């Protein structure tokens, strides 16, 4: 049961979790929701894009440049597998250490 190291990093996990609940999200919305700086989001989104998990789209709203992030199909699959792995780990019974000490 290996957790995907690309998703496992705390900030990337927050980003992927947020994107999994939407079709697409504006950069500033993701930044504010995850409470990180522009540079941290850029770096982490770039890592997710390199892994094929996130698509970054640039465009304009009026004259203002905008950036949107969305999970790719590969990213959605990887996130679903990550969550399933966590559920398997959490679903395992805890060892009762008090009985072992007796």
From TrEMBL:
InterPro entries: WH-like_DNA-bd_sf (IPR036388), WH_DNA-bd_dom (IPR027395), WH_DNA-bd_sf (IPR036390). Pfam families: HTH_34. Residues 11-90 form the Winged helix DNA-binding domain. It comes from Actinomadura gamaensis. This is Winged helix-turn-helix domain-containing protein.
């Amino acid at each position: 049961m290996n957790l995907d190291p690309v998703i496992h990093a705390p900030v990337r996990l927050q980003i992927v979790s947020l994107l999994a609940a939407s079709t697409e999200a504006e950069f500033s919305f993701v930044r504010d929701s995850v409470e990180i700086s522009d540079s941290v989001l850029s770096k982490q989104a770039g890592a997710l894009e390199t892994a094929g998990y996130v698509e970054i789209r640039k465009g304009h709203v009026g004259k203002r440049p905008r950036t949107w992030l969305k999970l790719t199909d590969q990213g959605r699959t990887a996130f679903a597998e990550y969550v399933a792995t966590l559920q398997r780990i959490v679903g395992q019974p805890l060892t009762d250490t008090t009985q072992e000490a007796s």
